[in-house]
Each structure stands twice: as C-alpha cells, then as structure tokens.
Write a structure and sequence with these properties.
heterodimer; A: 395 residues; alpha+beta; MetI-like fold; five-stranded antiparallel beta sheet; four-stranded antiparallel beta sheet; 12 helices; 9 strands; 12% strand; flat; B: 332 residues; alpha/beta; Rossmann fold; 2 domains; eight-stranded mixed beta sheet; 11 helices; 23% strand; globular; ATP binding (chain B); Oligopep_ABC_C (chain B)
Chain lengths: 395, 332
C-alpha cells in the first residue's frame, strides 16, 4: 500500500469569479422557427446526405441526357449486353501494335477496347471450333481462343494456357454498360429518373394542392361538410389502383399518362386525412378563436394560422408519399402497365433486366439500386424533417 | 379603487337578455330525443360603460361559454345581446364584422392564444391588418407603441412567442386585444395561468389601461380575491344562470344567495383558529350535470335552505337592494 498524494495547486481552490453579466445570461440565442429547423436539419447527417442525393438525382435527370450523345432509343445490336466493368486482356502480335480485348462471358464474344476501357468494336472470330467449344481469334500472328467448354468462359492462347489479364477497366463508352439491344443503360436510367421524378412531382403537387386544401376544409368546417367530404375520400381510397390504371389505359392509350392521372386523382387521400386530423385539433386552439374575434375571414384563418401550424406533418407525409408514388409507377411499369417502349422507366428497366438475369445480373443492379436509394433518400429526409420540424426536440 | 365619477353613470354598454347557449350532446339513431347541454341558460346582464364587471363561479358553470357567446365565437341559441344599437345575437357573420373591433378578448392560456408561427409584430398587427387600418409601416409603428404601453419594448417585435415568459406572452395578448381601441374587453380567466406575482403586475396594468383608454372589462375568473380587487360589480353564476349580482362591497359584505355565501366561505382563511370553526355555509355535494338539470331552483340539491317550493318554482332574479339582484326564494 503506498500513500497517494494528490497535490492541487492552491489557486485552483479560489472561487470562480462569476461576473454579474454571466449570471444573468441564460438565454439561448434568439432564432426564428425556420432558422431553428435548419440548424437541427443540418445536424442530421443521413437526412442531409439524402437531400444531397435527391438534389443530385434531380440535376442528373434534367441535365444528364443533354451531356451525352447516347439516346434512350438508339440500338446497336453488335454492342449489346456490355457490362460496365470488364477484365481487359492484351494481345501482342509480333508484327502489329498491341490490341486490347475483353471477353463478354455472357455471350462468349470478344470486344476490342482501348487501353483506358473505351469500346472500339466487336471482333469477328476467325474460326469457330464447335467440337472443342472454342472460338478462335487471330491478331496478326497471335492467336486467342475463347474457351466455353467450361463455364464461365475463359480466354486461352493457342496452346490452351490461360491468358493473363492486365486488370479491370471501367467501361468508358457506356458507364453503366448496355442492355440486350445495345442501348446505353446510364441514359435510360436517367430517363427513368425523369419519369420517376415526374411522378414524384405530380404526387407532391396533388398532395399539396388537393390533399392539403381538401383535408383543411373538411377538418375546419367539420360537421356535415366533414362527413360528406370524408365519405368521398373513403370511396376514392377503396379503388384498387392497378385496376384503375388498366381502365385508364383503355381511354388514354398511353400507360404513363394513365399512371400520372391515376396517381393525380387518388393519391391525395392520405394527405387529406392527415391534414383533416390536424385541423380538427388545431381549430379549437385559442389563437384561432382570437383571430375570429378580430373578424378574420375563413381564408385568412386557414392560410395564416392553421396551415402554417400543420406544415410539419404535411412535409413529413409528403416525403413519405413521394417514394410510394415512385414505387407505384415502377411497379406498374414492371408489370407492363407503365411507359411504353422504347421509353424507359426504372420499372421497365428492372423488368428487362430480370429477363437476362442469369447471364447479366449486373443489369438488374442499376435500376434496383436507383429505386432503393431513392426510397431510402426520401424516407430518411422525411424522418429528418419530422425531427427537425418538431420544436419539442430542440436542444 | 376610485374611478372617475362620470364613468360611474349608468349608461349600459351591453345589454344581455335571456341569453341561452345550448350544445347538442347526443341524438338518437334517427335524431330523436336529442340531449342538450345547457351551458348558458337564460342570463340577464347589463354591462355599464367604463366599469369592470367581475363574473365568478365554479368550473363548468358556463362563465367561459357566456364570454364566448357574448363575443360571438358561439352563436347563441336564444336571447338578445344589445351592443351599440345592434342585436349581436341575431347578426350574421358578415354583418358582425364592424362590431368585432369593439369587443376584444384576452384569453386564459397565453401559450395557446398566440400563434407560434407568427412573430410579435405580426401577432399584434393582425387585428389592424384585418380591420384594414394603415399600411405596413404605420402598423409597425402602432405595434411598437402598443408594446411600450404593455411594458415590453420594440426590440421584442421580431421575436416569437416561445421566447417569452407566460407573463410577457399575456402582455402580448393584451396588446393585441387593445390594438383596435375596443370598447369592451372580455378577460376570460386572463390571469389564472400566471404566477401570483405576475398576476398582480398584469392586473395593475389592466387597471392603468382602463383609466387611460376608458375600457370596459368583463372579468371572468374563479379567483375570488382577485375579482374583489379589480371589479366594480360582481356577478355570480351557477349552472348557466346568474344567481346574484351586486356592487363589489355589497356582495362581499352581505351575500344574499346561499351559493354566494358558500363560495365566499370556500376562500381559504389564513388564521387556523378561524378556519377550524364549523362553517354553516360550506357546500355539500357535487355540481349537478348541466344536461340533467334539477327542477326548480338549480342550486336546491346543494342548498342548506332548500324546501319544496325550490323544487317546484324557479326563482327569478329580483332586485332586493340598490343594484343588488338575487335569484333565491329565501333571500332577504
């Protein structure tokens, strides 16, 4: 046992000089409501990342297709089903410059590429040895064989030894590869984003303008007005959306227009219900009574007092309804009710990718990732907004 | 309290006759046998210009409903509210608009009565804006002036209600209520939600404002000591009816209705010896439901003086002494 001596310098024991000013200063800096919301939002990293993702997606959907010569409908069957990343091999004939090729293991074709990964074209086989299951390619005096006797197919030289690859390259011509008709997946993806964002925009608009005001009016007036309006909402809510879209297609021909109209005409009911509920509780607040004693019009009470106080739940519901609208469109397109070919939406891209899933699984990756990332982003943003807009969570 | 004598004249600002407000609480399956909650059930009341009329009663006796009916937040079921030569009880909402600015209200809960999304400037300027008075700039100037009047300063104009204490918020509510120079201000439990020390400040301020602006107050409260301090006359309500109304001193010194006596007996006494004495006037039982009202006199179920006569006949509000009206068969 050793004695432990802790020595504290004498001056540490002197009382802290508490200035009279500091003692009085207990208030937090004065912030307006929205400054406060912004601050809390900024601290929520997933929500900010989601917001950044959504902004990026919107910018890419608007400007992306303008920046490339690829279009969503141009087919090049020679360059179909190209993956976004491939393993490059070098063919070094003694009498000619070196050539770079990659092997598409899905269709056993050899493509010539530049060293950086730019696609130059399809290489024609010199000979096809169907007995040995080999395609023989000749570059000058060098011979390269695609051996598909065993899957996955491999590249061997004339003696049957595996060719050493020089590593993986990112496809510089088609960043996300091409689909089964040789169309650029990235551009189709961006057009899909346009469709999804259009759907999101329409859903947001109808929610905002029809849902909010319909619910606001029903909740504010209450009584029989509320009864009638909410029964209408219930009737609309019972219509199966799929059936509705199919019926619409009979009239409008275009699947996309049908989906837009279907979403536009029925998608505001959830919002109407939520706003109505808010209104029912807010309209009995004293500040509404105060506004009435001043002689405020119904319009003024709704727009100046009730709706601003409902803004939190409205925004949150909106960010949760938008992804569900996007998802509905993708689903409709996936089952063949949505946009018509050659136009692409994330749903049709998924459907096409599923057809070639066994040979080219990567084709499913991009539309699936786009859908799920967008869902995530909107949901995180909604959660973040809900937390940020609730003043009780102020720290 | 000394009010200027000329304010003491008996000019009636608001004359209320047989005012009723019934709420339908249930109906049978096809709407037969509807039941009504008779929150206000035949109130006669004169509010005189320049006075402070206190209104007291237990919770649920209809004080607040009466206030909200007088200011036409509720439409009365029946009766007359005569104000400035018009019958407010019959007017439609759009014909009511010119009278709105003459009657304002200060609410009980200063947290609920101010819209948290608006800053102080917008809150106080709102009545001016609705009445179409001045432009943006002159309204801001008026807001600054009003803030000084209620003891805040103009730096507060850009702040939001949640940055203020309860007392400060109530001052904002008062500034809003007096912005249009109303003739009648209804204070519905305006100080009940405040700390006692703040209550005194706010009450003193209300008195000063009354002197400066010639306001008339209808001061609703359940705080019997505060109402004694501020009121010129006091009315006592029980189950939707006025049971006694008298000048301040007369009511406290010579309460004539058994209910008033019971209310006054319920004021806590600071002296424990006094407090231990058996008090005859203490009330028994609970307040009956305003849906199934007792027959005859409403107070008879809890009244020590009740007889068969009380069950049969409802007593009228009679003037027993100068300005002292009571509704009881046995009051003298």
């Amino acid at each position: 046992m050793t004695d432990i001596h802790v020595t504290v310098p004498k001056e540490k024991w002197t009382p802290v000089d508490r200035g009279a000013q500091d003692a009085e200063f207990i208030a937090a800096p004065s912030l307006t409501y929205w400054q406060d919301v912004r601050q809390r939002m900024w601290r929520n990293k997933p929500a900010m990342a989601s917001l950044a993702f959504i902004i990026l997606l919107i910018l890419a959907a608007i400007f992306g297709p303008m920046l490339t010569h690829h279009t969503y409908y141009d087919q090049d069957l020679k360059l179909s089903n190209i993956p976004p990343i491939f393993e490059v091999y070098k063919a070094e004939p003694a009498d000619a410059p070196a050539q770079y090729v990659f092997l598409n293991s899905g269709n056993f074709k050899l493509y010539e590429v530049a060293e950086n990964g730019e696609i130059l074209g399809l290489v024609r086989a010199k000979r096809k040895d169907l007995m040995k299951k080999q395609h023989i390619y000749v570059f000058g005096d060098a011979e390269v064989r695609v051996d598909y006797s065993q899957l996955p197919a491999t590249l061997v030289d004339g003696d049957g030894n595996a060719v050493e690859s020089i590593g993986y390259r990112w496809n510089q011509t088609n960043w996300f590869g091409t689909d089964s008709l040789g169309r650029d997946v990235l551009v189709r993806q961006l057009y899909g984003a346009r469709i999804s964002l259009t759907v999101a925009f329409v859903a947001a608009m109808v929610n905002f303008f029809i849902g909010v005001f319909y619910g606001g009016i029903a909740g504010y007036f209450g009584g029989n007005v509320d009864n009638v309006m909410m029964r209408i909402v219930e009737i609309i809510a019972t219509i199966p959306l799929t059936l509705y879209v199919i019926l619409m297609m009979v009239v409008f021909q275009s699947g996309f227009l049908s989906i837009i109209i279907a979403i536009g005409s029925v998608f505001w009911v959830d919002m109407a219900r939520i706003v109505r509920g808010q209104m029912l509780s807010l309209k009995n607040q004293d500040y509404v009574a105060a506004a009435k004693t001043m002689g405020a019009s119904t319009k003024r009470i709704l727009t100046r007092h009730l709706l601003p106080n409902t803004m939190g739940p409205i925004l949150v519901t909106l960010t949760l309804l938008i992804p569900s609208a996007i998802f509905i469109e993708s689903f409709m397109s996936f089952i063949g009710l949505g946009v018509s070919v050659p136009m692409a939406s994330w749903g049709t891209l998924t459907a096409e990718a599923v057809e070639t899933l066994r040979a080219y699984p990567h084709q499913l990756f991009f539309p699936a990732a786009a859908i799920s990332l967008t869902m995530f982003a909107f949901n995180f943003l909604g959660d973040g907004l809900r937390d940020a807009l609730d003043p009780r969570l102020r720290k | 309290m000394d009010k200027q004598p000329h304010m003491r004249d008996d000019e009636v600002l608001m004359r209320v006759r047989d005012l009723k407000k019934h709420f339908q609480v249930s109906a049978g399956f096809f709407g037969q046998n509807p039941k009504f909650l008779k929150a206000v059930d035949g109130v006669d009341l004169d509010i005189r210009r320049g006075e402070t009329l206190g209104l007291v009663g237990e919770s649920g006796c209809g004080k607040s409903t009466l206030a909200r009916t007088l200011i036409r937040l509720y439409s009365p079921t029946d009766g007359v509210i005569e104000f400035n030569g018009a019958d407010l009880a019959k007017l439609k909402e759009k014909d009511l608009a010119p009278h709105r600015r003459d009657i304002q209200m200060i609410f009980q809960d200063p947290y609920a009565s101010l819209n948290g999304r608006m800053n102080v400037r917008d809150l106080i300027a709102e009545p001016l804006e609705i009445a179409g008075i001045g432009n943006d700039k002159s309204r801001t100037a008026r807001v600054h002036e009003l803030l000084e009047v209620v003891g805040l300063n103009k730096d507060h104009a850009n702040r939001f209600p949640h940055e203020f204490s309860g007392g400060q918020r109530q001052r904002i509510g008062i500034a809003r209520a007096i912005a249009l120079n109303p003739q009648l201000v209804i204070c519905d439990e305006a100080i009940s939600a405040l700390d006692v020390s703040i209550q005194a400040q706010v009450v003193n301020m209300l008195e000063d404002l009354q002197k400066e602006l010639g306001l008339t107050y209808l001061f609703i409260t359940h705080d019997l000591s505060m109402v004694k301090h501020i009121s010129d006359r006091i009315g006592v309500m029980y189950l939707g009816k006025l049971v006694e109304i008298a000048p301040n001193n007369a009511l406290y010194d010579d309460p004539k209705h058994p209910y008033t006596r019971a209310l006054l007996a319920s004021i806590p006494i600071a002296d424990p010896v006094e407090a231990r004495k058996d008090n005859q006037d203490q009330m028994q039982g609970e307040i009956p439901s305003p849906i199934d009202m007792p027959s005859g006199c409403r107070f008879r179920t809890r009244c020590p003086l009740a007889t068969d006569l009380c069950a049969e006949q409802e007593p009228e509000l009679k003037e027993l002494a100068d300005n002292h009206k009571v509704a009881c068969h046995y009051a003298e």
